[in-house]
UniProtKB/TrEMBL annotation:
The keyword Cytoplasm applies. Its main location: cytoplasm. Homodimer. Belongs to the PhoU family. It comes from Achromobacter denitrificans (Alcaligenes denitrificans). Signal peptide: none annotated. Keywords: Cytoplasm, Phosphate transport, Transport. The gene is phoU. The keyword Cell membrane does not apply. It comes from the Bacteria. This is Phosphate-specific transport system accessory protein PhoU. One of its GO terms (cellular component) is cytoplasm. GO terms for biological process: intracellular phosphate ion homeostasis; negative regulation of phosphate metabolic process; phosphate ion transport.
């Protein structure tokens, strides 16, 4: 990032960056607590998730207002403007990730408050760990301005998509073979879908990091082209995904 003689401008930029990272830390915790609530039946964790969601929403509003003030008071250079616009877009993905974590917690409560019978056996903790890692790496890439790490998150989303499709097939099989599992299987599909969406949001944020650092819009370009642009390669513009 470029350096400015205006100390207030630099302080404002750092405040936006720092608060966004705090917001991301809250969402990471929400994902873990929601999955722990599902696994253990500890419904106090559901309340923790809900309280954190309020904090996430507060951060979103405050950061959005800060960005608006910076744009109104200062004349950011192209690079700093790119950072501000990227964070503005990333805010939406981060807030929605928090929403998805809250959905997981809400369904966990519903499952454990009902009779614990006819629950299909499916392992979602690995998928949850993957999306939490993706979110953490997206935040790390943002903090370090690391487009290579951001591209790795984009690639990781393919694995999460595979896990989502596998979980869906597994749960549909349960419902066909034992209709008594339908209600709980639908709940588990809801949770798996929420996790998959968190992965999508982490991918979106990582694409914004690459744009912020490299000035390259890698949305809809495929994983290999994303990795190439993150490295700064300029050859093989027309390379195709396998």
């Amino acid at each position: 990032m470029s350096e400015h003689t205006n100390k207030q401008f630099d302080a404002d930029l750092e405040s936006v960056r720092s608060q966004f990272l705090q917001m991301g830390g809250l969402v990471e915790a929400m994902i873990q607590e929601a999955i722990d609530a599902l696994a253990s039946g500890d419904l106090s964790l559901v309340e923790k998730v809900r309280e954190r969601e309020k904090e996430v929403n507060r951060h979103e509003v405050e950061i959005d207002e800060s960005i608006s003030r910076i744009l109104a008071r200062h004349q950011p250079t192209a690079i700093d403007l790119r950072m501000l616009m990227a964070v503005s877009k990333m805010l939406t993905d981060m807030e929605r990730s928090g929403d998805e974590a809250e959905k997981v917690a809400t369904v966990a409560r519903r499952i454990h408050e009902a009779e614990l019978r006819h629950i299909p056996v499916i392992e979602l903790r690995h998928m949850a760990a993957n999306v939490r890692t993706m979110l953490h790496q997206a935040l790390d890439a943002f903090a370090r301005l690391d487009p290579i790490l951001a591209a790795a998150v984009v690639r990781s989303d393919k694995e999460v998509d595979k896990e989502w499709k596998g979980a869906l097939r597994h749960l549909i099989t349960y419902m066909i073979e034992d209709p008594r599992t339908i209600s709980r299987a639908i709940d588990m599909i809801f949770i798996a879908r929420a996790l998959e969406r968190i992965g999508d949001h982490a991918k979106n944020m990582s694409e914004r990091v690459i744009y912020m650092v490299k000035g390259a819009d890698v949305r809809h370009t495929g994983v290999k082209n994303t990795e190439r642009l993150a490295r700064g390669d300029v050859d093989d513009e027309d390379s195709q995904e396998p």
